[in-house]
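Sanity check

After download, print the first record. It should look like this:
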Amino acid sequence: MNREVHGWHSERLARHMSIIVHGHWGPPMILFPTSGGDEGEYEHQSLIGAIAEHLDAGRVKTFSVNINHGDSFANNRAHPLHRSWMQRQYDAYIRHEVIPFVRDHCRSDDAAVWTMGASLGAYHAANTLFKYPDVVKRCYALSGVYDMKSFMDGAYDDNFYFNNPVDYMANVSDPWLLGHLSTCDIHLATGTGPFEHSGEAYRLSRILASRIRRRSRSTRRRNRESRSSIATSFSFPPISPYGSEQCALTRRPRRRIISRCCWS
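Expected structure tokens:
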């Protein structure tokens, strides 16, 4: 399997940020780690190994990024409005540094990008698509949190509003944005175990259904296992490497059936 490590100093974040690339060809997918993870998390947790055959076959190409959670929402030493400012900076880092790098690495100026993440990574995966649906056309948000008010100690500003999906998506009315969102494939996955907060996914699902006029599907099956017991596998059909509208990524938990809401 092709593996590369890249990185640079981001002036926006005032720190060095690394990216691990797996695969040589295929639709580019940005992988966001959980709150305690980094760009190596999905490799260390064996997800990359689980999808190795698809990476080798050129059905997907992954770009694992780091996050700045300790500098933004989790920075309890900083003023809440500094936390929201740093989240804005991270959002700009992804759009103006990571996505151009991804497209350059794929030798395509207009490659449609996918995102995927779990827990806090699910927030970033969904937030990135909602903000830039003309660029990011598919996301897989697993067991995510989409309302970040608990990190803000009651403070609120525009930087926070435009990075809090349950707020800005509930009010979005721009025809251009809604038009692009209607072409996106959005997967919100949650479980029903004791460590899940499934209300977050269902709340966001209802908001999306009210704003995006597309066919929607929601299925729910119950299982008592905790999130830590999930073992996932991914399957990728043979596809054109950058034809995102024709691509499909299915999450098939072996030990736990999840709730799935998608717009396709």
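If your output differs, re-run the checksum step. Summary of this record's structure: The CA atoms of residues 8 and 16 lie 6 Å apart.
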